[in-house]
Amino acid sequence: MNRDGYIKFSNDQLEKIGYTSIYLCNKIPYLSKTKLLKLLYILDEISIKKTGIPFLNLKYKVWKFGAVAEEIFIDLSSEITLLSKYIEKDANLNSFKAKIDFSDDEFSDSDMQIMDDVIEKFGKKTTKELIDYTHREKSLWYNAAKKHSVLELLQKEEISNTDFLIDMSLLIAHDNMKKDIYLEYIETH
């Protein structure tokens, strides 16, 4: 964590977030901030379910519009700094576009397959559909909001965000092998 209370990303992690954002921008026309944030979350969720290893290893908070990586949300909401090497705002279209070419140096073949699968399954969905997906009953967001007694407050829009983190390990709580892989990955990264 840096002095401002935000998580400091390693260079490798920031490269992977940046190039993932480029890949998504290149494959999905008119990628809005909320849609980009949802897809980053879904990448982590699907990767953990499939392999036990997070795709980006972001920390997600329980917010009104779903699981949100706060540092990335802040970066995309103002002048982009963290991801400024990789993407930029297209003010005319209220979306993001790539600034540099995609590089697959940070990605395994499995990573590329997960990105392509997510784009195929979720790339054409609207932002609202993606929010509904992350908010579905029994989802990590839903269960965390319920556990911390903020579900109704968020649904009624009485609050818009919380500091409650979503426990991604719950995705694989039933699979001891993947759970061990996940916990080891979290400890070493």
Structural class: mainly alpha
Radius of gyration: 16 Å
Count of domains: 1
Helical coverage, percent range: 40-55%
Strand percent estimate:
5-15%
Count of helical regions: 8
Tell me the series of helices and strands, N- to C-terminal.
HHEEHEEHHHHEH
Low-confidence region ranges: 1-6
Find the count of extended strands (DSSP E, 2+ residues).
5
**Overall 3D form:** globular
Mean pLDDT value: 93
What is the strand arrangement across the widest sheet? Answer: 2-1-5
> In this structure, how is the largest beta sheet organized?
3 strands, antiparallel
Distance between the termini: 13 Å
What does this molecule look like?
It contains eight helices and five strands; from the N terminus they run ααββαββααααβα. With 189 residues, the chain is mainly alpha-helical. It has one domain. The strands form two sheets. A three-stranded antiparallel sheet has the order 2-1-5. A two-stranded antiparallel sheet has the order 3-4. α2 (33-51) packs across α4 and α2 (33-51) crosses α5 (127-135). The radius of gyration is 16 Å and the shape is globular. The model is unreliable at 1-6 (pLDDT under 50).
